[in-house]
Amino acid sequence: MSESFDAVVVGSGPNGLAAAITLAQKGLSVQVIEAEDTIGGGMRSGELTLPGFTHDLCSAIHPLALASPFLSSLPLAEHGLELIHPDVPMAHPLDDGRTAVLEMSIPQTASHLGRDSDEYVKLMAPLVRSHGNLVEQFLGPARPPRHPISAGRFGVHAIRSAKGLATMFEDERSRALIAGVAAHSILPLDCLVTGGFGLILAILGHAVGWPVVKGGTQSLANSLQSIFEANGGQVVTGRRIDSIDELPRHKVALLDVGPRQLEKIAGDRLPKSYLYRLRRYRYGPSVFKVDWALDGPVPWKDRFCREAGTVHLGGTFEQIAASERAVWENRHVARPYCIIAQQSLRDPTRAPEGKHTLWGYCHVPTGYDVDMTELIEEQIERQAPGFKDLILAKSTLGPADLERSNANYVGGDINGGVQDIRQLFTRPVARIDPYSTPVEGLYLCSSSTPPGGGVHGMCGYHAGKSALAKHFKQLR
Questions:
Q1: Which residue in 445, 441, 450 sits closest to 463, CA to CA?
Q2: Which are the contacts of 68, defined by CB distance < 8 A and separation ≥ 6?
Q3: DSSP for residue 135
Q4: In 17-168, where do the E strands start and end?
Q5: Per-residue confidence (pLDDT) for residue 475, from 0 to 100
Q6: Which of 36, 220, 254, 387 has the greatest count of CB atoms below 10 A from its CB?
Q7: Helix or strand or coil: residue 169?
Q8: Across 24-32, average pLDDT
């Protein structure tokens, strides 16, 4: 007789593992099935360039993991996780030699913003004080706010576009800071809610920091697996699921997959009306990623860049806005907005003594097949002359490579679908319970459900709670 489980989870990304832990903590028998040989999804790490150099395959910087109501509730440190904080969370150099700097201290950050100093403190201080309430509201499905005053204070700014939010400031550094954090949304900066994405990342920079995982982000995945197994869970790797019929016997199944994979796995059981809406789900632009093994630290001209865990490149607000708009219009970008992470500055386990790793990517049109390596390196070289001379080896991942490494990255979209105002809370389709499907006992728990992309596990947590409420009411 084949094994039988209360729940089966397909996929071991942060959301799949979060869903599995949520159910296992209630005493249910749970099996996680992962297609790849290693768990983690976007949390995987590996030696992509040279032996001894550990690179993060996708996610690298983790403010959302620290702030996540679910992940922060787990004893991750007891299961091997160590987070390391860089001296400076983020630096954003401009061509004129000035730099916007996001520090954990609001006053210190404001001190870098010239005449906008007071305005920045006025905006950020009350939001940071209520960051716990805001994160709880932001990292979930649409629902009435439990803390309406703080939600309203945030919402009046969060609904705005980054372009609108930037009108509050005059200094180029302030406006560039807004552009850099808002562009993580992979949306044009004149779109509604891009201001909210930028605000959340800035708020978390002050409230919890932008840390890296010691030894690589894979360590976070391993810690989650350890907690899951400590609660009686079982993990199976190297087994791809192409149909619901391939699953072991179960009461509920939670799929850490996107809409296209859901149709492939369960399409013959889904109503035509639901499939029609599922096929209208929109995926967004891609990324082009490069990892470098370096002979030394990046020789940034600016001292804050030399201390920052994350560096945003791309220039002024207007230059970044133009870059992001071009990506959405399927046009080539000669000076792309780039996100650079310097994990080895504070984590010597990432590289041999005296050597360093560097991680970076830029946004590109969906499925773009142009090699952006040279353009990304030129953006770095512009602010760090001599950088190219330090390169020992490099590894590149274009949109097609990313999708091969993780089927949820359709066309290279690492957010699991567009996160604009139309699809922020109605992903993948508009339903009272966005994690449920029309098939009894079948749930989605991927970043294609609210609240979307990022290593926070909240999509999986909410999906797990939904399954508990409907199928295991006695355990809620």
A1: 445
A2: 135, 139, 456, 457, 458
A3: H
A4: 30-33, 45-46, 55-56, 83-84, 88-93, 99-102
A5: 72
A6: 254
A7: coil
A8: 97
H/E segment holding residue 98: none
The domains located in the chain, with CATH, are: 4-82+213-281+416-475 (3.50.50.60)
Residues 318 and 258: their CA atoms lie apart, in Å, by 33
Task: Tell me the per-residue pLDDT of 209-235, one tens digit each, with 9 for 90 and over.
Answer: 999 999 999 999 999 999 999 999 999
Cβ-based neighbours of 334, under 8 Å, separated by 6 or more: 375
**How confident is the prediction for the chain on average, in pLDDT?**
95
Cβ-Cβ contacts under 8 Å for 113 (sequence gap 6 or more):
100, 120, 169, 171, 173, 174, 177
In degrees and rounded to multiples of 5, residue 96 shows phi and psi of -85, 5
Which are the contacts of 13, defined by CB distance < 8 A and separation ≥ 6? 40, 41, 42, 43, 256, 406, 408, 446, 447
Q: Tens digit of pLDDT for each residue in 328-377?
A: 999 999 999 999 999 999 999 999 999 999 999 999 999 899 999 999 99
Spatial separation of the C-alpha atoms in residues 268 and 81, rounded to whole Å: 41
**Where is 198: in which H helix or E strand?**
helix 194-207
